[in-house]
Amino acid sequence: MTRQEVFNEVQNIFRDIFDQNDMVIENSTNSDAIDDWDSLNHINLVSAIEKEFAIRFALGEIMELNDVGSMIDLMLKKLNNL
Amino acid sequence: MRQLEYPLDINYILRKKKSIKNNLLLNSSLIEKNIAILGGSTTAEIKNILELFLLKRGIKPKFYESEYNKYYEDALFEGDELDKFNPDIIYIHITNKNIIKYPDLKDSEEKIDTLLFNELERYKSIWSALSKFDCAIIQNNFDYTNSRSLGNLDCYDIHGRTYFIKKLNDHFSVNARKIKNLYINDINYLSAYIGLTRWFDQKLWHQAKYAVSMESIPELTFNISKIVTSIFGSSKKCLVLDLDNTCWGGVIGDDGLDGIQIGTETAITESYTTFQKYVKELKNRGITLAVCSKNDFKNAQEGFSHPESILKLDDFTSFKANWSPKSQNILDISQSLNIDVDSFVFIDDNPAERDLVLSQLSSVSVPDVGSDIVEFISHIDRSGFFEPISLDIDDTHRNQYYKDNQKRSSDIAKFQSYDEFLISLDMTAEIKSFSTVYLDRITQLTNKTNQFNLTTKRYTTGEINAINLSEKYIKIYGKLIDKYGTNGLIAVSIGRVENKSCHLDLFLISCRVLKREMEFAMLDILVRKCKEKNVTNIIGYYYKSAKNKMVSDLYEKLGFTLLVQNTEDSIWKLDITNYENKNKFIGVMND
User: How far off is chain A from B208, nearest CA to CA, in Å?
Assistant: First the structure.
């Protein structure tokens, strides 16, 4: 998968979780930018990403996912290792 | 919304919960209920997903959620906020993570008994503190732990955690049998069904203190919603079955009695036998069975004379085999049994027939069972259509009622007039003030009676208890017996006395006994009791609902005069100073 493909799917997940069909995210988007992005929704995002891409984040990794860009970097690493 | 039915589309539910919720909120006939969640771990997502399943079942929940792991404090000490919330249902979400002290390897048997006792005492004090709400308490039992350092010994050595949990669960069951309004949400079974490795997510526990995995939450909340539905008396009542390739393999019209597949000789015959056995179990605990098949009537009936058939003709309360559309037959069955179609579950191996029925009768439950008989039981069982909260006598005898009822209907034809028929029924009624043994049944009736129900006011157990104790209310129930047997408790009226008036907050009669003039007998007794309290007039209210059109002119028939007409709702008044008894056909016992 290319970075763009992963990015698009992650955007879809954001749209579902926050129920905003026209939400546009960027690499720099973080929890400050989205009101509902609290710790509980963070868990929901991570769970949905794990399911959709069939990957697992380690406990330590999740703590470091501060913005969309770092999330996708880590995902690409995992996806390419498969 | 098939995603919320068995088999659940878990990923879809978790991802789309917000849009699902908005969709479900479009339903205009939702009943509001207050649900308190007292959690021993994080419950945020449990609340969100439970909301979807309740909305799907027509309940719009308002939630109270305890602070993280404050279930004990909330139940025992918090009071104020929960008091104000006035819950209809309290759900206590605990898991093995909430067990405070497991046995140590060096503990004696007595010591372990003490631990068990202490653990149990905590819950007993919760249940007893919450009993003031007089509402249903749905209580998780305990799941097993994912790891067990004692290995298999863990389940039989007295120091084992598995053993300890099993004991605790046994005690929970004993208490649930004894304590009114306490219902077990059996997560011990559910986690086994899902599989412990899927049920619990160690990472999610450390990260967010969820004691169950994300993917288990839909199953968990689906299960809770089945109990809630049952508590409110809305479980299904009637299972309607197709015949060919549903009750047996093959087509009886083509293959003949000897050719259909039922029995134990082959894998195929055995699978139909297994299905029939399951259906028979449902029937034995009070579910009404009916046949709806496109078949020649004689051929169809012959199928159940097969020596290997578990189900016999006699097991079915209604039997429709003809070439009319199935939706029409289901309506006929509904009419002859006097059970609303929204209490029906229809099982057919043919997807075209299923779709047709669903398109004509959207309130019938038509699970997408596929065409493989092996899958049918799971669809019925996991959907929880027939979830009971208790095995009460009324339910197990229900089939007899309906059978009697059909005999009653067939007798009508033999009489010259309807009056003559009513006389022949030899009816006696017991119409008395509420008594505690009937309060559950009364609550149940207020929540599930739709047709002969003037106000469609729904009551909680707590409210009915309060009314029972209050002098302000004239509250009476009616039981009806006729020559065919007893119909059970089938009528309720609740009148609120203010000054010289009695305001009828509730007046309902179960559809089992419509057109029996029970309403006259009820009014006679109501008037008598009003006079005892020096009431001079009765005020009746009619609030139109989707289903109670049949009683829109009831007050007029009972001699009330119209006070206020407000579009489709109306208020009526009856001066009782010169009231003459109206009931002619029912002998009444009263108090």
Answer: 8
Question: Does B117 reside within a domain?
Answer: yes
Which residues from B are below 8 Å from A47, CB to CB? 14, 204, 214
Contact assignment for A16 to B204 by CB distance below 8 Å: no
Selecting from A19, A39, A47 the residue whose C-beta is nearest the C-beta of B18 gives A19
B407 domain residue, yes or no: no
Residues of A in contact with B203 (CB under 8 A): 58-59, 62
Question: Is B162 contained in some domain?
Answer: yes
- Is B25 at the interface with chain A, CB within 8 A? no
Assembly ipTM: 0.89
How many CB atoms within 10 Å of residue B374? 13
CATH of the domain at A74: 1.10.1200.10
Give me the domain span that covers residue A51.
3-81
Asked if B327 contacts B360 with a C-beta cutoff of 8 angstroms, the reply is: yes
Residues 6+ apart with CB under 8 A from B111: B103
* Domain end (from B196, B231, B266): B231
Q: Report helix, strand or coil for B166.
A: helix
According to the 3-state scheme, what is the secondary structure of B109-128?
HHHHHHHHHHHHHHHHHHHH
- Split into its structural domains, chain B has a count of 3
Question: Which residue from B15, B45, B210 is facing A16, i.e. has the nearest CB?
Answer: B15
Taking an 8 Å cut-off on Cβ atoms, the answer to whether A19 and B210 are in contact is no
The whole-model pTM stands at 0.77
Chosen from B9, B209, B213, B214 to mutate, greatest number of chain A CBs within 10 A: B214
Look at residue B391 and tell me if it is in a domain. no
Local structure of residue B245 (DSSP, 8 states): T
Q: Which among B275, B460, B253 is positioned nearest to B374, based on CA atoms?
A: B275
10-residue averages of pLDDT along chain A (82 residues): 94 94 93 88 92 90 85 92 66
Task: Specify the CATH number for the domain of residue B475.
Answer: 3.40.630.30
